[in-house]
TrEMBL record:
PANTHER family: PROTEIN, PUTATIVE, EXPRESSED-RELATED, XYLULOSE-1,5-BISPHOSPHATE (XUBP) PHOSPHATASE. It comes from the Eukaryota. SUPFAM superfamilies: HAD-like. This is Haloacid dehalogenase-like hydrolase family protein. Gene3D superfamilies: HAD superfamily/HAD-like (3.40.50.1000). Coiled coil: none annotated. GO terms for molecular function: hydrolase activity.
Length: 201
């Protein structure tokens, strides 16, 4: 028996509709913690024939993209000051996370603060730019369908329109940078025609 998560209702039809209308579908796994695992789950559900129509952008694809080579490439040397600044940002982010957990524990609350480091945001931006590059579509003509704050922040940073599809973990989160917030796929929620309207607005 498979232990993979089920696809959200309407996702398969959404992808089919996109492919029928010639809308490139790019799945970004590079900035997700469990991205590769999710892709395996989706491949299992959709089948290899449908997945052949979808571009999957993982860490290696980001590194090979023009933007990835320029910004993340090993050939780009950073000076000592940049490296120290990067390490300082990591330390501050880790300390913010530790304090948030400690306060939440004392108050017996669950907190969700954005401790996305600038390095993390840089990785999201690199993944988004690589996705646009592999789709051969200008960034401003793409639409990110996301469920995470980091995805929305990255899209906003580079001027890529973004639509949030809520999940149980983001039901109460606010996404001020998103062009639209939906509860699911198909019907009254996210469809390709609605995506085109959002993109044009």
């Amino acid at each position: 028996m498979s232990k993979t998560l089920p696809l959200r209702p309407g996702v398969e039809e959404f992808i089919d509709e996109a492919c029928e209308e010639g809308v490139p579908v790019v799945m970004l796994t590079a900035y997700c913690k469990s991205g590769e695992k999710q892709v395996r789950s989706i491949i299992e559900k959709l089948g290899k024939d449908k997945m052949a129509k979808i571009k999957i952008i993982g860490i290696e694809e980001v590194k090979r993209s023009s933007y990835g080579q320029l910004v993340l490439g090993e050939g780009v040397a950073s000076d000592l000051g940049e490296q120290l600044a990067k390490e300082a940002r990591k330390a501050v982010s880790a300390e913010e996370q530790r304090i948030a957990k400690e306060v939440a524990s004392i108050l017996k609350l669950t907190v969700d603060i954005d401790t996305t480091s600038s390095e993390g945001l840089q990785n999201v931006v690199a993944a988004l730019r690589a996705g646009a590059e592999y789709a051969d579509v200008p960034v401003h003509n793409c639409v990110l369908v996301s469920g995470s704050l980091s995805g929305v922040a990255g899209a906003e940073r580079i001027g890529m329109p973004c639509v949030v599809v809520r999940s149980s973990s983001t039901a109460r989160a606010e996404f001020p940078g998103a062009k639209a917030i939906m509860d699911g796929f198909g019907g009254a929620d996210l469809t390709i025609s609605r995506l085109r309207q959002i993109q044009g607005s």
